[in-house]
Specification:
The protein is mainly alpha-helical and about 200 residues long. The chain has 6 helices and no strands. The chain has one domain.
Length: about 200
């Protein structure tokens, strides 16, 4: 029970960090007017890399504070579960980044694919983590699927919104959902303490 509380604390901090990074990146991209499709994809890949590095630092610090090995069997299982979907997400980003045409449709289609693949990674990891992660992953997958349907409909009906909106979607989904989930973890941690 105590280890579960420790993991929930690390998960809440990490989730808030990812959410804040998503919202801040969305605002920064809008302020900097990063509206080229290749720039959009490259920017969000850089944000994902920086966020992953910061999340790694938080989890590593937690393991050092608790005098536990960082690369433990549970960490290995979670990493192995998430890796396939994350690697495909990286491949999707690289393909979009180096696509010959700097087409807004390529960038717009990358967004729901990233959401769905990230959701698959979270859902897979959820088999080795608190139960809520699987549901959180399904929410991302659902958002990705619905957004892909909406993008296809907009394209066939005559036009996609500007990429400024895509930055907003990334901030709302990746940023907003993480902040909401972090708040949920904190709330349930205080209302349902271990051993209660």
């Amino acid at each position: 029970m105590e280890r579960t509380a420790i993991y929930r604390r690390a998960l809440a901090s990490t989730t808030f960090l990812v959410g804040i990074m998503g919202v801040a990146a969305s605002a920064a991209a809008t302020l900097l007017k990063l509206y080229s499709p290749h720039t959009f994809v490259g920017f969000w890949m850089a944000v994902a890399t920086a966020t992953l590095a910061l999340a790694f630092a938080i989890v590593r610090r937690q393991s050092i504070q608790d005098a536990e090995p960082f690369w433990s069997p549970p960490t290995k299982r979670v990493t192995q579960a998430a890796a396939p979907a994350i690697l495909v997400g990286v491949a999707v980003g690289i393909a979009a980044l180096f696509s010959p045409a700097d087409d807004p449709l390529t960038a717009w289609r990358t967004v729901p694919l990233w959401m769905a693949l990230y959701g698959c990674a979270l859902h897979s990891s959820g088999f080795f983590m608190p139960r809520g992660i699987k549901l959180f992953g399904l929410l991302f997958t659902l958002c990705g699927g619905l957004l892909m349907i909406a993008i296809n409909k907009l394209e066939t009906e005559g036009g996609l919104p500007p990429l400024a909106y895509a930055h907003g979607v990334m901030g709302a989904v990746f940023g907003g959902l993480h902040i909401a989930y972090g708040a949920y973890i904190r709330k349930t941690e205080t209302t349902n303490p271990p051993g209660a």
